[in-house]
Design a protein that fits this description.
- There is one protein chain.
- The protein has 313 residues and is of the alpha/beta class.
- The protein has four domains: 40 residues; 99 residues; 31 residues; 59 residues, no CATH class.
- It has eleven helices and seven strands.
- It starts with a helix and ends in a 6-residue tail after the last helix.
Length: 313
């Protein structure tokens, strides 16, 4: 009897332990499964409106900067702002509502190169979104876009190669035109002759390169020019004073003004000098006086006694 009672107590204890372990395991499983269940977590609905879902499907996950926070609930063809497209409703856990703001943007991205598509939402700053808000959509550069750009690049490259084959453009002429090749060959020959002339001290350039004495002369001239320039900057000499000394400039300016005033007086017909330059009457009078004086001098030479009388007392 004692042995039978002990076996019953052990059996009861073991059953109790198994029951407790089962409850713990069930609770843990419920916690893990219920993290995405509306029974355990509160969710809000966010929407996007696109004309191309790019392979997105219902129940694909929604992420914030790569972290899974919800799923795609439904996709319905609707008209919005006079545009027909697909309205995508996303169920997002409400605990992330504070980091999804009015300026957040959604982007349909692939999981890998050929993986399923998901919706990635960028972090924002400002006023958080409300339940049922629409998010702006940014287009992601996917494999299809890269393929299209690659095809366009290949077409442009083929068009360029065709132009080159027809001899169009500089590269086409270099390849197809013998005239341009001949010109390049002549230019190369001329350059070779010039190099030979320089190497053999022919001409001024060749002597400048190879003649040390001529180079020293030019160096001395350069130093003299540098000395003259320094003197001009310091205001030495007449030229330096013209450049630096303001008093000399003022004197020259005053002399110029006086000369201009003198010329103006010459041009003034009311002045004496102006009348000499412009009044023909004064000119004729002076001319008659000069003629009369010349006649008087001639008569004086011819008949001095008529004008000079010498008497002896």
């Amino acid at each position: 009897m004692a042995s039978t009672s002990g076996n019953l107590r052990w059996r009861d204890l073991r059953a109790g332990v198994v029951f407790v372990v089962g409850l713990v395991a069930a609770g843990a499983l419920l916690l893990v499964v219920g993290r995405n269940s509306p029974v355990v977590n509160r969710f809000i609905d966010l929407k996007i409106f696109v004309q191309d879902i790019e392979g997105l499907a219902e129940n694909n996950f929604v992420a914030i900067s790569g972290k899974k926070v919800g799923t795609v609930q439904s996709m319905t063809i609707k008209e919005r702002n006079d545009t027909i497209g697909v309205e995508v409703v996303m169920s997002v856990r409400a605990e992330f509502q504070k980091v999804i703001t009015k300026d957040s943007k959604a982007k349909i991205k692939p999981l890998g190169v050929l993986g399923d598509k998901y919706v990635d939402i960028t972090l924002g700053s400002g006023e958080p979104v409300s339940d049922g808000d629409f998010l702006a959509v940014e287009k992601d550069i996917g494999l299809a876009d890269v393929t299209v750009e690659g095809e366009r690049l290949i077409r442009n490259l083929n068009a360029l190669l065709e132009k080159i084959n027809r001899g169009e453009g500089t590269i086409g002429k270099l390849i197809r035109s013998s005239e341009l090749v001949d010109r390049l060959e002549r230019a190369a020959e001329n350059l070779e002759r010039v190099s030979a002339s320089l190497a053999s001290n022919q001409g001024l350039a060749g002597r400048l390169i190879n003649d040390a004495e001529l180079g020293n002369r030019f160096s001395a001239v350069a130093k003299d020019l540098e000395t003259i320039t320094a003197s001009l900057r310091e205001g030495k000499g007449t030229a330096g004073k013209l450049l630096v000394d303001e008093s000399l400039y003022a004197n020259l300016n005053g002399a110029t003004k006086r000369l201009d005033s003198l010329v103006s007086s010459w041009r003034n017909p009311s002045g004496s000098i102006g009348k000499l330059a412009a009044d023909s009457t004064l000119y004729h009078n002076l001319n008659r006086v000069a003629i009369a004086l010349d006649s008087l001098l001639r008569d004086l030479k011819a008949n001095p006694n008529r004008y000079i009388n010498v008497r002896m007392f």
